[in-house]
Amino acid sequence: MPEPLIEEFGDGIKVTMFRKVSSSAQKVGSVDEKVSSTFDKYVSMLKNAGITDKFIESIETVFHACDTRVVFGQVNVQEWLECSKSKATNVMKAMKTAKIIKKVPGAGFGRYQFIEL
């Protein structure tokens, strides 16, 4: 099973558990193939927004970590990219500029999700 996502909020924590991908979905095509082909749809939006190839690679890593179902924030990006806070901020800014992520109301401050294409 995928590792749970543990986040701190003030004096509490939030734990998000993910279900295991069913074997029937893997028979049709591998999960990596589906995620890759889905991310390709975002590349044109990123290039049209003037996002550099280096940032696109980082954004693809973030996408592979969460796909379109997971709500994430800067701390998650920092963890997934194993980078500094400033780089995570710049990656988030690039995704917002390209309008490939949307703010998720009710999920907390600075929480986003990839848009469905």
Structural class determined from secondary elements: alpha+beta
Q: Beta-sheet strand percentage? A: 5-15%
- List the secondary-structure elements in sequence, H or E: EEHHHHHEE
Please tell me the overall pLDDT. Answer: 80
- As residue ranges, the low-confidence spans are 22-36
The rounded distance between the terminal residues' Cα atoms is 26 Å
- Sheet with the most strands, sense and barrel status: 2 strands, antiparallel
**Estimated helix fraction:** 40-55%
What topology, given as strand order, has the largest sheet?
1-2
Question: Judging from the principal axes of the Cα atoms, what is the shape?
Answer: globular
Total beta strands: 4
Calculate Rg over CA atoms: 15 Å
Number of helices: 5
Description of the molecule:
Helix content is 50%, strand content 14%. The protein is built from five helices and four strands. It is globular. Mean pLDDT is 80; it is low at 22-36.
Write the layout of secondary structure elements.
Layout: E1 5-9, E2 12-16, H1 23-28, H2 31-48, H3 53-66, H4 74-81, H5 85-97, E3 101-103, E4 112-114
Antiparallel strand pairs: 1-2, 3-4
